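Record passed on here:
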Amino acid sequence: MTLLESLGINLPIIQAPMAGVSTPAMAAAVSNAGALGSIGVGATDADGARRMIAAVRERSQRSLNVNVFCHQPATADPALEAAWLDTLRPHFERFGAKPPPGLSEIYRSFMVDDAMLSALLESQPQVVSFHFGLPSAERMRALRERGMVLLACATNIAEARAVEKAGVNAVVAQGYEAGGHRGVFDPDAEDDCLGTMALTRVLVRQLKIPVIAAGGIMDGAGIAAALRLGASAAQLGTAFIACAESDADAGYRETLAGEAANHTVVTRVISGRPARCLPNRFTILGTGIPPRQVPSYPIAYAAAKALNAAAKSAHEPGYGAQWAGQGAPLARALPTAELVAVLAEELTAALRVN
């Protein structure tokens, strides 16, 4: 059985989960168009995941990918967190606000979230994918026994080999071009910064499981290039941010459509983990700050969200987590279903070219 057959899709296109940006309406539209729609539930709890899955199923009975975060639970460091809030204090005060009195771990890792596992076992989405690492063998076995296809992100060869060894059905080869959080298993280890096409080709040559290319792919020509290198499918995230069904706010959309799209940067000051973002006021304030001064993920994210809320209340959109990949200048503001149709047409045309 091919990967597309196991995923239950017709097109070799996967819409990236993008927690906080993708919506049930987007995922349903992608799936109804013959590709794989995805939702990210790493930023919600089990009940929230149930509601999101149900909302997709109200709109589509096609395949759905539910993505969970598999980061190591954060280690609190009150002194470091207090110092970080002091660093951010002038920015809060600019908007007549104060930093929160303390920070907490706002997202629970799937590694230890039994309620989320139960929600997935009950809802039984066709596909479950992992970001930031792999859950225990027992958790993966429970999902497989319910018939779910498993995908996992890898940014280098060692991570990909771990994915294959764990029995995951396919690996998402996330290149350095990709927007949003790097899927690195260890955010403090040196990042090989492998590009999408190089990583895809290496993994195709060295692994026995299918490879899904992800990072910087924005149109049918990019999908065709990945397929020609041996990928079984391509995963696109930034391409969908400007879609009508996206949860990106007006400030995010305006920044994506402007000059900033040409200058994405990788930063960890927003969430505590390295992530590629449109340059904005938050990324600028983080310039030159050593990683050791930033609290762990997702504790740092609590501070970022509080600062963003204060800024937005004053009509300043430049402190948001405006994730985007290096292909951002190619983003198109189309309804999701129309974008998938255009991607399919472009892919067909590109594959006709010798």
Observations:
- The chain has two domains: 3-73+108-247+331-352, 75-106+265-323.
- Residues 75-106+265-323 form one domain.
